[in-house]
Amino acid sequence: MLTRLPWFFLALFLFILSLTSSNLFAGNELPGKGVMLMDPWSRPAPPVAVNGAAYLSFHNMGPEQDRLVGARSSISNRVEIHDHIMEDGLMKMRHIEDGISLKSGERVELEPGGKHLMLLGLNEPLVEGESFQLILQFEKAGEKSVEVKIQEKSAGDSHGDEAKEHGENHGNKHGSTSASHDS
After folding, report:
1. Which of 6, 58, 59, 161 is spaced 20 to 30 Å from 99 by Cα?
2. What pairs with residue 143 in β-bridges?
3. 96-122: per-residue pLDDT in tens?
4. Right CATH number for 33-179 from 2.60.40.1890, 3.30.1780.10, 3.40.50.1820, 3.40.1390.20?
């Protein structure tokens, strides 16, 4: 009877650990598995703004290539993956219809002046200090939910004015064109 007692406690400990470990790492993946989401943020926008943008980094910790194929949030009617491209000497923004490829071990930055998530048709203003949920859809890792903080970025952020203009003036002219890009 005494020799079975330590095994019972070990089994009980492992069972409890298995139940709680999924909650301990919610929103991020354990190293070596899936896609890890980092530093999600969005700039504040005036109440009259129709669109906004969200930024974050993600790191493919899995053994296989994955792809960000979409996103959604209750803060806006639509969320699209966008990129800035140079066309005819002008910087333009385009919808990336086929998503963003993410090789095993690769880290991708969504940032002002580059790839980003466009929040089209805001349902409420982006108020500094508040946050909203964003659900990213990956081809293999599935859906990942993250809380996006609404904040001004630090003084080291060189794209501040461009990103503000992007969020405030990103109107109908943007949604009318699209192109496919791969990262």
Report:
1. 161
2. 137
3. 999 999 999 999 999 999 999 999 999
4. 2.60.40.1890
User: What would the pLDDT profile of 75-92 be if each residue is shown by its tens digit?
Assistant: 999 999 999 888 899 988
C-alpha–C-alpha distance, residues 146 and 102, integer Å: 18
User: Is the Cα torsion angle 122, 124, 128, 133 positive or negative in sign?
Assistant: negative
CA dihedral (58, 21, 145, 42) positive or negative: negative
pTM of the full predicted structure?
0.69
Q: Quote the tokens at residue 147.
A: 């809380």
CB 57 within 8 A of CB 102: no
Measured at the CA of 152, the angle between CA 148 and CA 157, to 5 degrees, comes to 105
**Three-class secondary structure of residue 116 per DSSP:** strand
Three-state secondary-structure class, residue 176: coil
Q: Is the separation of the CB atoms in 35 and 59 below 8 Å?
A: yes
Share in percent of the chain as helix, strand, coil (round to 5): 20, 40, 40
Read off the tokens for 50.
């129709």
For residue 132, what is the enclosing H or E element? Answer: strand 131-138
- Distance, CA of 18 to CA of 73 (rounded, Å): 30
